[in-house]
């Protein structure tokens, strides 16, 4: 029975159903795909504009976002002494998900700390509170780096 199952399983794993292909062809032929792309690009542009606006409003001057011309990622260079891995973990505990850019480089190549922000899986309304949280978490982190404040919790 197992060989028969595996034979049929490999068939389904290897081939796209004809019905799915027909649906996709109709979707594309009727211009629905182009309309979908236009809508998605418009939404991403709106979200990126909001992210940049909030970054300029809430992040200190020395912590501005890298402003891309397209796409749905931007990068934030962190202040000296702020570890991107620790910050990413602290933000995750606060339900703010960012990506640690350190994982994209070999350890000897990384000169500064960066986090990457994505607008793809976030609602427009979540961007402002998210940037505020990132900014305040970085500020708290910097205060705790200062030996004067060791042992104090704000």
Automatic annotation (TrEMBL):
One of its GO terms (biological process) is alpha-amino acid metabolic process. The keyword Phosphoprotein does not apply. One of its GO terms (molecular function) is transaminase activity. Keywords: Aminotransferase, Pyridoxal phosphate, Transferase. Its cofactor is pyridoxal 5'-phosphate. InterPro entries: Class-I_PLP-dep_aminotransf, PyrdxlP-dep_Trfase, PyrdxlP-dep_Trfase_major, PyrdxlP-dep_Trfase_small. This is GntR family transcriptional regulator. It comes from Companilactobacillus nantensis DSM 16982.
């Amino acid at each position: 029975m197992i060989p028969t199952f595996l034979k049929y399983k490999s068939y389904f794993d290897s081939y796209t159903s004809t019905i799915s292909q027909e649906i996709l062809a109709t979707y594309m032929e009727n211009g629905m795909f182009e309309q979908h792309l236009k809508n998605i690009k418009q939404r991403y542009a709106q979200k990126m504009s909001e992210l940049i606006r909030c970054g300029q409003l809430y992040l200190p001057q020395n912590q501005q976002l890298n402003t891309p011309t397209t796409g749905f990622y931007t990068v934030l260079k962190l202040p000296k002494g702020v570890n991107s891995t620790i910050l990413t973990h602290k933000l995750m505990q606060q339900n703010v998900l960012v990506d640690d850019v350190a994982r994209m480089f070999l350890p000897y190549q990384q000169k500064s700390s960066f986090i990457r922000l994505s607008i793809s899986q976030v609602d427009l309304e979540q961007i402002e509170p998210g940037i505020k949280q990132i900014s305040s978490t970085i500020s708290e982190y910097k205060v705790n780096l200062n030996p004067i404040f060791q042992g104090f919790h704000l």
